[in-house]
Amino acid sequence: MMPSENHDYKVISLPKLNGLTPTLESTALKLMEEAGELAQAIGKFRGKSGETVWMDEEKVVDKMAQELLDVAQVAVSMMFVLEENYDINLKEKLEQHIAKLKSKGYIK
């Protein structure tokens, strides 16, 4: 997908982590764990989980951003596993994903 196609993109580059031997299964489980931590931060700090933790808005949003980046890092790690262990062509998958978004009207 070429950036000149008039889409708004948020480009974040995350590294491949060293010293790990992740499997598809272990990475999927870690992704769910990190997503749970994000949900917990949102629920707890917004009073949606039955308990209220008093923090100022800036700290709450900062914690959410930290947890979201943990989710993104694990998702990127899972992409490395798919490429390296399963010969998945992520460029091709990204193009298919963009086409799907277009077909649903989410982007033009």
UniProtKB/TrEMBL annotation:
<keyword id="KW-0378">Hydrolase</keyword>
<dbReference type="InterPro" id="IPR004518">
    <property type="entry name" value="MazG-like_dom"/>
</dbReference>
<dbReference type="Pfam" id="PF03819">
    <property type="entry name" value="MazG"/>
</dbReference>
<dbReference type="GO" id="GO:0016787">
    <property type="term" value="F:hydrolase activity"/>
</dbReference>
<protein>
    <submittedName>
        <fullName>MazG nucleotide pyrophosphohydrolase</fullName>
    </submittedName>
</protein>
<dbReference type="InterPro" id="IPR044548">
    <property type="entry name" value="AF0060_NTP-PPase_MazG-like"/>
</dbReference>
<feature type="domain" description="NTP pyrophosphohydrolase MazG-like">
    <location>
        <begin position="23"/>
        <end position="103"/>
    </location>
</feature>
